[in-house]
Amino acid sequence: MYKDFFGFSVSPFNTTPDASFFFASEQHQEALARLTYAIEERKGFVLITGEIGAGKTTLCHTLLSKLTTGVKTALVTNTKLTSKELLKEICHEFEIKFENSTRLELMHRLNDFLIDQLARDNNAVIIVDEAQNLTPSLLEEIRLISNLETDKEKLVQIILMGQPELSQKLELPRLKQLKQRIVTRFHLYPLSFSEAEQYIRHRLKIASVNERQIFTDSAIEEIITYSGGIPRLINIIADQALLHAYSSGKHKIDHNMLKEVIREFIPPHELKVKPLVKPSEPLHAGEIAETAPEEHEVAEKSIKRKKRRFWSLFFSGGNGKKSHDCMTHSEDEGVEIEFDDFIIQKINKFDRRFSRYLLSRPSKNRIIVRFDAFSKFKKELEKDGIFIELPE
To answer: Where are the annotated coiled coils located (predicted)?
Structure first.
């Protein structure tokens, strides 16, 4: 409706999973790389989780767009199925004929298809979106499908994508065997403030036929704040703002218009997310805090205090090893920690285990730990005999 008015070739903030709008943030690139590797190396089960609107389905469609013709895929999006209906859906996606087949016959047909693909040097992948809706029985059915393998090769790779409840469901005792087969896990977090800003400008650039600035910087900040860094909410708010500006005959959207749009047109339940606050300006050396915040709430409170942005703490290696001094300060939405080579080697050694708590990969002698994960990160280090001791 508003495309010609603003000079768009396509609507920039559709909520459909359009791979051409894929925003390659660091975490989305890593997730895509892990998926591609798992498929190419025939690793078996992969688990991708993320909050509603975090970009899982767009990631899935981007993956599909990048796979070669030698990869046959079955995308299952309807997860409210019976066991037999699930098998039928998979066979349908693989274009396997199955008229009037029993469940056992469906399994035989699927097995024959997979063996044929292996003989052709093709790869077969089953992707289940919204997998958190699968019942434990259906998840067990999927595990049985993964049993279709030769002595040397897995015949099918299975990717489960869903909300965090999926990880919780996999903790059920009856799904222990399935959980053990998952070789790669990745969780998509909301975008950081800077990533969310890049995301908005990225979509506008793709859709625009000119370089006209439609959103003011303050309007973009409003979108990011209220969206909590969740891509789908960014799209919903920005799309409503464009529609409102079009109906008002205005070519520029400022923060006042954004607030009006959010108040009048965005349902309250859509905004039940944690607001994303723009990070403070970098601090100067010498602004030392008296204590180190341990929990997320304390950290948030402390970084708002002027001249209380830095705090000292040190790592104590277990078994009587010497202490390892470090300095931390606020950086974007995380705690930046600088330390010596002993600790960075520990972090790199267990990179996959610690990566879930970091805003970015370890570099040189520094890492940035997410505020909301600082306490968990601390406890994870303690498992390896590395303790963060807060100064008194």
So the answer is: none
- Residue 122 carries which side chain, given as an amino acid letter? N
How far from 146 is each of 159, 202, 320, CA to CA, in Å?
Answer: 11, 39, 47
Confirm if 222 and 233 have CB atoms less than 8 A apart.
no
**CA 287/CA 177 separation, integer angstroms:** 52
Task: Give me the residues paired with residue 74 across strands.
Answer: 126
The CA distance from 276 to 286, in Å, is: 28
Residue 241 CA: distances (Å) to CA of 5, 13, 203: 13, 10, 15
Whole-model pTM: value is 0.69
Dihedral of CA atoms 106, 160, 180, 38 in degrees, nearest 10, equals 100
Tell me whether strands 366-370 and 334-338 are parallel, antiparallel or unpaired: antiparallel
Per residue in 225-244, pLDDT (tens digit) is 888 899 999 999 999 999 99
CATH topology of domain 26-188: Rossmann fold (3.40.50)
- Which residues, in sequence order, are bridge partners of residue 369? 335, 358
Residues 6+ apart with CB under 8 A from 8: 2, 207, 208, 209
Bridge pairing between strands 386-389 and 310-317: antiparallel
Q: Out of 255-259, 338-342, 373-377, give the one with best mean pLDDT.
A: 255-259
Indicate the domain borders of the chain: 3-12+203-271, 26-188, 296-389
DSSP structure class, residue 16: S
Percent of the chain exceeding pLDDT 90 equals: 53
HSE (CB half, 13 Å, CA atoms) of 81? 20
pLDDT of 51 over the 50 cut: yes
Q: Do domains 3-12+203-271 and 26-188 have the same CATH topology?
A: no
SS3 303: helix
Cα separations (Å) of 94 from 43, 75, 160, 279, 390?
Answer: 20, 9, 17, 48, 57
Distance of CA 304 to the CA centre of its chain: 28
CATH says 3-12+203-271 is which class?
A: mainly alpha
- Residue 258's contacts (CB-CB under 8 Å, 6 or more residues apart) are 219, 222, 223, 237, 241
